[in-house]
Write a structure and sequence with these properties.
single chain
């Protein structure tokens, strides 16, 4: 769980999602836990942009399933 907890988006969301899922698939996490952990690792800039735009972070559910 340590690796996934420390994972952060440094490049594209697609690259982050790929790395995230590689780690998540080795763990026994439900979809809600995956989504929360995925959101935690997103770049602050992306989170801020989504908030300003009024877009919910749940749009990333497709990346974690």
């Amino acid at each position: 769980m340590n690796k996934i907890s420390s994972l952060r988006q440094m490049k594209s969301v697609t690259m982050y999602a790929s790395e995230f899922m590689s780690l998540a698939n080795t763990l026994n996490l439900n979809n809600n836990a995956k989504l929360l952990q995925f959101q935690k690792g997103l770049s602050p800039e992306l989170k801020r942009s989504l908030t300003i735009s009024g877009i919910s972070l749940t749009i990333f559910e497709t990346y974690i399933q």
